[in-house]
Design brief:
- The structure is a single chain.
- This protein starts with a helix and ends in a 6-residue tail after the last strand.
- About 15% of the residues have low confidence.
- The strands form 3 sheets. A 4-stranded mixed beta sheet has the order 4-3-7-8, with no helix packed on it.
- The protein is α+β, with helices and mostly antiparallel strands.
Length: about 140
């Protein structure tokens, strides 16, 4: 009986340890260690730099989210004129919500000749500036 109790106690202890490790897995995945990342890789800010998650006293990611009024943890955003917007809130250069246009962001990128591939890899980000009513895509992959 003592052996069975020891085995059960061991299994419970291992289970609790595993739960603690799994609880931290998602935050490590989102931060990519020192930089913010998502399932497409490292996430860049609207100036083409990777966003640091090191806290001293607050991280660049925290400052980025606060400066752009984004919910903490956001990795899906569109950069327009150097500022980040949620995809559902960004406007084109005429002030029209892109998300409400036929085809949304994907069609907007096609219509405005955004880079689709760089060195054989799909370009996931969306960054552009407005010159009057003209959309000018930004390619920070050459950085």
């Amino acid at each position: 009986m003592r052996i069975i109790s020891t085995i059960i106690a061991g299994v419970c202890l291992v289970s609790l340890t595993a739960c603690g490790n799994l609880q931290n897995w998602n935050s490590d995945y989102l931060t990519g260690g020192e930089y913010l990342s998502d399932d497409q890789g490292l996430v860049g800010d609207c100036q083409g730099s990777h966003i640091s998650t090191k806290h001293n006293p607050e991280s660049a990611a925290d400052r980025f989210w606060q400066a752009n009024n984004l919910p903490k943890g956001t990795t899906d955003f569109v950069c327009k004129d150097g500022k980040a917007y949620l995809p559902s809130k960004v406007t084109d250069c005429q002030g029209n919500l892109i998300a409400k246009q036929p085809g949304g962001i994907a069609q907007f990128k096609l219509n405005n000749n955004f880079p689709r591939y760089k060195d054989g890899e799909m370009v996931w980000y969306t960054m552009f500036n407005c010159q009057g009513s003209k959309v000018v895509p930004i390619d920070y992959t050459n950085k």
